[in-house]
UniProtKB/TrEMBL annotation:
Stated family: Belongs to the importin beta family.
Subcellular location(s) of the protein: Cytoplasm; Nucleus
Family annotation (Pfam families): IBN_N, Importin_rep, Importin_rep_2, Importin_rep_3, TPR_TNPO3_IPO13_2nd, TPR_TNPO3_IPO13_3rd, TPR_TNPO3_IPO13_4th, Xpo1
Superkingdom of the source species: Eukaryota
GO molecular function: small GTPase binding
Chief location category: cytoplasm
Record's protein name: Importin-13
Keywords (A to Z) from UniProt: Cytoplasm, Nucleus, Protein transport, Repeat, Transport
GO cellular component, one term: nucleus
Subunit structure as annotated in this protein's UniProt entry: Interacts with UBC9, RAN, RBM8A, eIF-1A and PAX6.
ATP-binding among keywords: no
Length: 955
């Protein structure tokens, strides 16, 4: 054999380059040189010469780095360039590899592994035809005595080989059909592998390293669909190996892999025999827990959970063995409740949560009489689970918690969320009794004066309650009043507990709306918490929920709530929530009270804004201004007095307190009018700052959205301001607000004149932008097209005006169709689909369509022909459909003319295909929108040369 013949001359010419490059790769300190060498070597590796030089590199006098490169090159050639090798050389390649492996089995492990990978690759390429029984042959060859190489080393090499083989198989680039054949062949070879493994594992004199390899080999071979009954003995041996600390991890891996094999549930008897083996591990588990051996604990629980999770159905169905399965479930319960805090003292309990979902699902999927039997056994188990989970959810002592890293605290938070989700799920099985159960426990804790109770215990019970109440309608649970009665008894001396109390109250907001008498016992707590900066998130979100759900019952508390809210220094987003909360709250008050509260609420902000408006603009006062404008927007988003009468009309028992809004201005309008001049001052300084403009527009946009027609008194003022803003510096938010005004007020005679003036002004300003080159402002063009579409929809009369250059607007539309920004093109298509129906009733529109419609036609065809993104084809089809519906005879003429030029809209379509397209589009009586979309889709694929391709199909 090549490598063992020490002084034999190597047959191939090796340029010094190779060694130089390897030297550079390993020893050159310069990283660029290293990279260059690596690149060069990669190329050398795949070159045809590699077949020769790799053997030379492996010769024994070379250093391991060079030998390693040779072995890698060999593997690369075999796995990626297999077709280079003539089939009559398979045999000699195999022999050479075997002998190299024998040589290296007692020297470099690194090189040996690469060689084994190469042989594995060879076997995978030649199985099953060219090398049937490859595995059996390997086993035989490796076991033959001789060569002076020690038996143990050869044995390890063989095991390495077998493991690598299966691992190599998992990542093999073979085609699926070949893969399946090879997999089948490998599976059949298990018969050759398994006796060897068994023998090695059972021999008392096998060194630990050999046994560890055996287990690793087993782990990877069971993944090749080895039937569980045929690996059964080895799995039992693996269980025995668990007592050996050196073998523990690999044994766990092997067992877990074997029992989670997809078809393992077919071997019911084998599985049943596993259960006592798993149960027998409990002693070892307890010991591990006592000695704080987290790894052992984790491994044993993994085995129990895998068996339970993968086979709960199978094992549940073996009713004769119900006790042993129940014992397994209890063992998993022990794993769930393993002592110590996650994630610091243990990492095991989180492993088990999915098991509980699976088991519950299986039980609930039995038909009802069977289910009843199982429930009898398992309901108590799940009640116990709730206790265990709530125990695990408890915070550690303050001192311990302080010592945790922020990462550990975050992991614990997520763990609690997982527990919360599990409880919610378990509620489906246990029902209202679960809430009563929690309530009783809490009651006992809070009324027990003999023993001091930890806040952690109380917190966890409330947390469990809140997890359920947050998503489930607790209306029919009769323990809620009792719970609310208990809350004030909790002595809240801790932030986490206080947060949980807040969230619990928040979770009950809907229930409180139905039981308003209870508000008085919880609201003071919320208001008090509002004063604590540490509780701002939980208290503000709870207040917001209560204000939203219970606003009609809150008027007596309103003044107090507003007063408490004012003294708060909060984080920006909580300020915004708080404003929304107050908006809800004020909505239910009589108008004069709203005004009074609004006054005291926003006066400080207005004063601040006045001051800021006076200052010279700089980044910090900009943020302050945007903040105050944001507060107003949020307040006006939820302050909606119109719902007062709606609500009372809906409800069967109209709340008397919700008085009808008296005639008179809406309070929001009153406030807006008061601050209008101030806002104008702000704008005058900040007009070229898009964020401030956006914030100003947002205030009005939110107000218009909630106030609707009540906004009327502001229409002319706001129209004028918007017109000024937009003609000074055109920006998209002004157009969006204009569109909203058009939407609500354009069809009202009273408001038509200011709206009309504004519409004409912004249109003419935008048209001048188009003259100067609109490409820099796709957002303005987008908003402009939407505005035009809205105007056409709500008030086509706007286009009758002398003051509007309809033709120019149309041309802008044609230009915008060719924009690369998809949203802009979408809005433009919408504009045309709104425009075309008015060809008959709005003469100026009729004229422009008649005169310039052909331009539109061309632009559409250009887009379909490949100019526009394929995702927009439905929108283009809508415009074509609209043309077909509203200007049919013109469409026929335009299509014919536009499609005339050869090569338009794409050189890929023939004259026949174009004819066919127009013919289909023009089949008037048959055409519907869906059909036009299909026709356009088909034609656009032809134009793009994608017709019939996979790319087309998957779209
Ligand atoms: C394993 O089960 C299969 C049937 O699924 C059977 O044909 C085979 O003989 C069994 N093997 C052993 C070792 O029991
Ligand atoms: C089998 O159990 C393991 C470990 O619990 C789990 O990751 C895997 O998803 C389970 N497989 C099935 C099919 O349930
Ligand atoms: C958890 O680990 C911490 C730190 O290692 C230790 O102080 C604490 O006593 C442990 N707690 C339990 C219950 O084992
Ligand atoms: C909840 O219960 C209250 C009082 O028992 C009742 O008035 C209310 O209509 C119920 N709500 C729902 C949503 O069932």
């Amino acid at each position: 054999p090549l490598c063992c013949a020490r002084n034999k001359e190597t047959p191939c010419v090796l340029s010094g380059f190779l060694y130089a490059a390897l030297h550079q790769l390993y020893y050159d300190p310069n990283i660029d040189n290293k990279n260059m060498a690596q690149k060069w070597l990669m190329q050398a590796q795949v070159s045809p010469q590699a077949w020769q030089f790799c053997w030379a590199l492996l010769s024994p006098e070379k250093v391991p780095e060079i030998q390693y490169f040779g072995a890698s090159a060999l593997h690369t050639k075999i796995s990626r360039y297999w077709s280079d090798i003539p089939s009559d050389q398979y045999e000699s390649l195999k022999t050479q590899l075997f002998s190299q492996i024998a040589c290296f089995s007692s020297s470099s492990k690194m090189v040996l592994t690469r060689l084994c990978v190469a042989l594995a690759s060879l076997a995978l390429n030649t199985m099953p035809e060219a090398w049937p029984g490859a595995v059996a042959e390997m086993v035989r060859v490796f076991q033959e005595e001789g060569g002076g190489v020690d038996g143990r080393a050869r044995c390890l090499a063989l095991l390495e080989m077998l493991s690598v083989m299966s691992e190599e198989f998992q990542t093999s680039p073979l085609l699926l059909t070949v893969l399946l054949q090879v997999r089948g062949a490998l599976g059949r070879e298990w018969g050759a592998v398994s006796p060897l493994l068994q023998q090695l594992l059972r021999r008392a004199d096998s060194p630990g390293a050999v046994k560890a390899r055996v287990l690793r080999c087993l782990s990877s071979w069971v993944l090749l669909d080895v039937p569980l009954n045929e690996s059964e003995d080895l799995v039992h041996d693996s269980f025995s190996a668990l007592t050996d600390p050196e073998l523990f991890d690999t044994a766990v891996e092997a067992i877990v892999n074997a029992i989670s094999q997809p078809d393992s549930q077919r071997y019911v008897n084998t599985l049943l025999k596993m259960v006592p083996r798993v149960l027998a591990l409990q002693e070892q588990l307890r010991e591990a827990v006592q000695t704080g051996d987290m790894e052992t604990c984790h491994g044993i629980c993994r085995i129990a959970v895998t068996l339970g999770e993968n086979h709960s159905r199978t094992l549940l169905e073996q009713v004769d063995h119900w006790q042993s399965f129940l014992a397994l479930v209890n063992m998993i319960m022990f794993c769930t409740g393993v002592p110590g805090h996650y994630p610091v003292n243990e990492t095991t309990s989180s492993l088990t949560l999915t098991f509980w979902y699976t088991l519950q699902d299986e039980i609930m999927s039995f038909e009802s009489d069977k289910q009843a039997v199982y429930l009898q056994v398992y309901r108590p188990v799940y009640f116990q689970l709730v206790d265990v989970l709530l125990h695990k959810a408890q915070f550690p002592s303050d001192q311990e918690y302080e010592s945790w890293s922020s990462d550990e605290k975050e992991q614990f938070r997520i763990y609690r969320v997982d527990i919360s989700d599990t409880l919610m799920y378990v509620y489906e099985m246990l029902g209202a009794e679960l809430l009563s159960n929690l309530y009783e426990k809490l009651g006992r804790l809070l009324t027990n004066t003999e023993q001091p109770t930890s806040w952690q215990h109380i917190e966890a019970l409330l947390y469990g309650f809140q997890s359920i109440a947050e998503t489930i309608d607790v209306n029919y649970s009769d323990v809620i009043p009792g719970l609310i009665g208990l809350i004030p008894r909790i002595s809240i001396n801790n932030v986490q507990l206080a947060d949980t109390v807040m969230f619990t109250i928040g979770a009950l907001a809907e229930w409180l709306a139905d039981h308003p008498v209870m508000l008085s016992s919880v609201l003071p707590l919320v208001l008090q918490a509002l004063g604590n900066p540490d509780l701002s998130v939980s208290s503000v979100s709870t207040l917001k929920k209560i204000c939203r759900e219970c606003k009609y019952d809150l008027p007596p508390y309103a003044t107090n709530i507003v007063a408490v809210s004012q003294v708060r220094e909060l984080h920006t987003s909580q300020c915004m929530w708080l404003m929304q909360a107050l908006g809800f709250l004020l909505s239910a008050l009589p108008v004069e009270d709203i005004l009074r509260n609004l006054h005291s609420l926003i006066t400080p902000y207005i004063q601040q804004l006045e001051k800021l408006a006076d200052e010279t603009p700089n980044p910090s006062n900009k943020l302050a201004i945007i903040h105050i404008l944001g507060l107003l927007s949020n307040l006006f988003t939820t302050l909606d007095i119109s719902k007062q009468d709606d609500e009372s009309a809906d409800s069967s028992a109209p709340p008397v307190k919700a008085a009808l809004p008296p005639p008179g201005p809406n309070p929001v309008v009153v406030v807006l009018q008061q601050v209008f001049a101030l806002i104008q001052t702000v704008l005058s300084k900040w007009l070229n700052d898009s964020q401030v403009v956006e914030a100003v527009c947002a205030i009005f946009e939110k107000s218009v959205k909630t106030l609707l027609h009540d906004f009327a008194p502001m229409v002319s003022q706001l129209s004028e301001m918007l017109g000024q803003m937009y003609s000074t510096i055109p920006q998209a938010p002004a157009l969006d607000l204009t569109r909203q005004m058009v939407h609500i007020f354009a069809s009202q005679t009273d408001h038509f004149p200011p709206i009309k003036a504004l519409f004409e002004l912004v249109t003419s300003v935008t048209l001048s932008i188009f003259q100067q080159g609109p490409r820099d402002h796709p957002d303005i063009v987008d908003s402009f097209m939407q505005l035009q579409a809205q105007a056409l929809k709500r008030k086509p009369d706007l286009f009758l005006s002398e003051g509007l250059d309809v033709k120019a607007v149309f041309h802008c539309g044609v230009l915008s169709l060719k924009f690369p920004e998809a949203p802009t093109v979408k809005s433009t298509c919408l504009f045309f689909t709104e425009l075309l129906p008015h060809c008959s009733d709005v003469p100026p529109l009729a004229r422009v369509v008649q005169e310039d419609g052909k331009l539109l036609m061309q632009a559409l065809l250009e887009g379909v022909g490949g100019g526009a993104s394929r995702s927009l084809m439905d929108q283009f089809a809508e415009v074509l459909f609209s043309l077909n519906k509203h200007c049919f005879s013109l469409l026929a003429m335009w299509l014919k003319e536009a499609l005339q030029p050869p090569g338009f809209p794409s050189s890929r379509v023939t004259a026949e295909q174009k004819d066919n397209f127009s013919h289909q589009i023009l089949r008037r009586e048959r055409v519907n929108k869906r059909r036009v979309k299909d026709i356009v889709k088909e034609f656009t694929l032809l134009c793009r040369g994608l017709h019939g391709t996979e790319y087309a199909a998957e779209y």
